[in-house]
Design brief:
Blueprint lengths: L1 E5 L4 H10 L4 E8 L7 H10 L3 E5 L2 H14 L3 H16 L5 E3 L13 H11 L2 E3 L7 H11 E7 L8 H13 L1 H7 L4 E8 L4
Parallel strand pairs: 1-2, 1-4, 2-3, 4-5
Antiparallel strand pairs: 6-7
Helix pairs in contact: 3-4, 3-7, 4-5, 7-8
Length: 199
């Protein structure tokens, strides 16, 4: 059975990949709008996990709509949510048994509701998997410490191939760097350097 896992190169999606790898042939997929994002570090992280990797083309109009929503809202939540759901739709269109992500129990965004998951499954004849959905941040951090080598830092300093990087770029191009700082709260990102603490 094949599972396409949305992969940023960070700790949550990497831990989800290790979890799923026991039961599925995992394919790591990084969605890209082609907006100045460098997905090569996600490709390197996938290689370090010894799992196949590919990019997944996303519809640029979805990114534009997401940024419009972020500007209107003054925060990124709804924009990121719409992009995540779009990426799951694109992943579900691949020839796979399941689509998955690294969402955790206490994530604010993105989240996948039961109705959204069931709709995705019914329309695409796939299973939606969220292996970390029952885990809080503390549990995830302990598992990551035990099984992954990661580097972390502020989101603008640690490269990651997720929607946020491209949305930040699009927002900065349209509204300026100050708009990025106003819309996106400061937070840490991670990038995977290897399994089991070995670089």
């Amino acid at each position: 059975m094949d599972a396409a896992l949305l992969f940023s190169g960070g700790k949550d999606s990497a831990l989800a990949a290790l979890w799923l790898d026991r039961f599925y042939e995992v394919r790591l997929v990084t969605g890209t709008f082609g907006i100045g994002s460098d997905w090569r570090h996600a490709s390197r992280a996938a290689a370090r996990l010894d799992l196949p990797f590919r990019t997944l083309d996303l519809d640029r109009a979805v990114a534009v709509e997401a940024v419009d929503r972020m500007v209107a809202d003054g925060y990124p939540r709804h924009g990121i949510q719409s992009v995540h759901e779009h990426a799951l739709e694109r992943a579900a269109a691949l020839d796979v048994t399941a689509v998955a992500d690294g969402t955790r129990r206490d994530d604010r965004v993105p989240t996948v509701s039961r109705a959204t998951a069931q709709s995705l499954e019914d329309r695409h004849d796939v299973d939606y998997l969220a292996p970390l959905a029952g885990l809080g941040r503390g549990a995830v951090d302990r598992l990551v410490d035990a099984h992954l080598d990661v580097v972390s830092g502020p989101s603008e300093a640690v490269p990651q191939a997720d929607y946020e990087a491209e949305l930040r770029t699009l927002l900065a191009d349209r509204e300026g760097d100050d708009a990025v700082d106003a819309v996106f709260p400061a937070h840490e990102q991670t990038v995977v350097r290897g399994r089991d603490g070995s670089p």
